[in-house]
């Protein structure tokens, strides 16, 4: 097995064996390292990062945040982390609630009906999500696809498009590639659909924000003894009985007692595991994306408050292509566009054109413009939370039903991964309070849903139309029968 691993990458350079290696310097990897050192300062930790900076999806440019920036107060793990690090938390207060938002969904003739059926559908999914807790249901190959479910439930094309886009945002794959059951399980794990809509689409004033550079500084200061190796993409992992070898893109082999993988599922799928991961994990990992979906985040600065001048504030939403915008400051607008890989260079012109159509031509020529492309992280219906021998899973996708796919999930998985690693290398330092810290708060509860509420939530234009037709035909038949025989 050792030979196999080495042959793949040519003659390697070996490093000294260390206690814990963390792959990925996103928020989950950094929180894992922080927690490990807090519990056991003597641990030797090395972090391997593929890009040339740390922070992962937390990214800042001089105009402001271009990566993750907001969270709901209910994302308890993020809130507690920021408080511990003494990072100021502010309430977002830019949106002028008296001005209307600029959503394509609001501008069509049938918009009120479309919004009504959409709201009902989202409520239905929210009410039913707790029944799809990971492990509570089985996924068969012929399960209904989410695209079909949307088309069977929603009548208006605007509401269908909105929902299809939302599915892509939540699970990083097309609605035609994910089953209804998988999607429901993800909704359960992501907090709630309304939370996703708030953070990515509506961006209301109730959201909390923080300075990501401040947080990254605070975390790195507390990781003084940790070795950071950037521009080291992990290519292969060889798992032995007592240790693990990690092969990076510079042909170096790192040996460790415990390996923590704080990277998204997309990145896990690109690593060569020897021996291969067990069947149950492979099933989840092999649920590969047919298409890589990208998310380009942008910020554009202008000399004037164009949105407000045009009578709009708050958020912007276009369904095709899927563009979301928000007011960062009255003359600075941010947002994101979802697209297939390879079309990053077109984002700027598409976005500015869409803005110009809605708020005036001046929007096509910003004073400053910046963008950054991220791969949309895909989520599997089953998070990896149990270590595989000496390999521990972290990252937002590996959170146990605690804002998976969000900052809350990343922090929670980081804390849980640290606990898993400590149980392997220093079990004596683990206490019951550490287990409590990892515990998920605010998980939706099945018991709260009544049978009538469940039934009512499933009513939509199609089945109400069907029931009405059925009831009228029965009445008509009875009336005819009464006339004939009565
Ligand atoms: C544009 C955008 C905006 C967002 N906004 C919000 C928001 O407002 N609120 C919110 O709650 N959530 C938001 N999210 C989601 C949130 O950012 C993520 O859930 C969270 O940051 C994930 O953290 P992570 O540590 O799990 O992964 P990441 O941040 O993705 O970090 C993983 C790291 O691993 C590295 N890596 C990958 N593969 C390898 C490899 N083979 N070898 C070595 N290193 C590797 C990557 O380079 C990366 O640095 C947003 C996401 C995006 C993309």
UniProtKB/TrEMBL annotation:
It holds the Pfam family Amino_oxidase. It is a single-pass type IV membrane protein. It comes from the Eukaryota. InterPro entries: Amino_oxidase (IPR002937), FAD/NAD-bd_sf (IPR036188), Flavin_MAO (IPR050703). It catalyses: a secondary aliphatic amine + O2 + H2O = a primary amine + an aldehyde + H2O2. Its main location: mitochondrion. It is found in: Mitochondrion outer membrane. Its EC number is 1.4.3.4. Residues 27-418 form the Amine oxidase domain. Belongs to the flavin monoamine oxidase family. This is monoamine oxidase. It comes from Bactrocera dorsalis.
């Amino acid at each position: 097995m050792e030979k196999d691993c080495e042959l793949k990458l040519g003659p390697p350079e070996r490093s000294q064996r260390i206690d814990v290696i963390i792959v990925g310097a996103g928020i989950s990897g950094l929180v894992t390292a922080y927690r490990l050192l807090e519990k056991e300062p003597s641990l030797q930790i090395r972090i391997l990062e593929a890009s040339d900076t740390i922070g992962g999806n937390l990214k800042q440019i001089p105009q402001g945040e271009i990566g993750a920036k907001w969270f709901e107060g209910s994302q308890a793990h993020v809130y507690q982390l920021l408080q511990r690090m003494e990072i100021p938390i502010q309430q977002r207060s830019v949106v002028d609630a008296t001005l209307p938002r600029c959503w394509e969904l609001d501008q069509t003739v049938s918009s009120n009906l479309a919004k009504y059926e959409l709201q009902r559908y989202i409520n239905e999914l929210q009410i039913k999500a707790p029944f799809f807790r990971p492990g509570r249901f089985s996924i068969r190959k012929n399960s209904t696809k989410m695209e079909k479910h949307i088309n069977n439930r929603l009548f208006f094309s605007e509401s269908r498009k909105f929902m299809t886009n939302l599915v892509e945002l939540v699970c990083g794959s097309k609605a035609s590639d994910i089953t209804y059951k998988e999607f429901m399980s993800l909704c359960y794990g992501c907090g709630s659909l309304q939370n996703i809509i708030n953070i990515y689409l509506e961006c209301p004033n109730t959201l909390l924000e923080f300075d990501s550079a401040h947080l990254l500084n605070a975390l790195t200061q507390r990781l003084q003894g940790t070795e950071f190796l950037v521009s080291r993409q992990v290519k292969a992992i060889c798992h032995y009985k007592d240790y693990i070898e990690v092969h990076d893109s510079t042909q170096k082999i790192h040996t460790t007692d415990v390996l923590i993988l704080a990277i998204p599922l997309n990145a896990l799928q690109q690593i060569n595991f020897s021996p291969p991961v067990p069947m149950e994990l492979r099933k989840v990992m092999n649920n590969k994306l047919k298409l890589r979906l990208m998310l380009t985040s942008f910020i554009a600065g202008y000399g004037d408050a164009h949105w407000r001048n045009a009578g709009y504030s708050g958020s912007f939403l276009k369904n095709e292509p899927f563009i979301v915008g928000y007011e960062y400051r009255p003359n600075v607008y941010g947002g994101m566009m979802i697209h297939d890989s390879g079309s990053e260079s077109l984002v700027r012109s598409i976005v500015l054109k869409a803005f110009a159509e809605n708020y005036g031509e001046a929007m096509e020529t910003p004073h400053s413009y910046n963008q950054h492309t991220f791969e949309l992280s895909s989520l599997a219906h089953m998070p990896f939370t149990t270590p595989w021998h000496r390999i521990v899973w972290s990252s937002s996708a590996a959170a146990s039903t605690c804002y998976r796919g969000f900052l809350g999930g990343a922090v929670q998985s980081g804390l849980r991964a640290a606990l898993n690693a400590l149980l392997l290398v220093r079990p004596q330092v683990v206490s019951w309070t550490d287990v409590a810290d990892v515990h998920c708060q605010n998980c939706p509860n099945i018991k709260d849903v009544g049978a009538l509420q469940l039934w009512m939530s499933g009513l939509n234009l199609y089945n109400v139309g069907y029931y009405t037709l059925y009831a009228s035909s029965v009445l008509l038949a009875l009336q005819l029968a009464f006339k004939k025989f009565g």
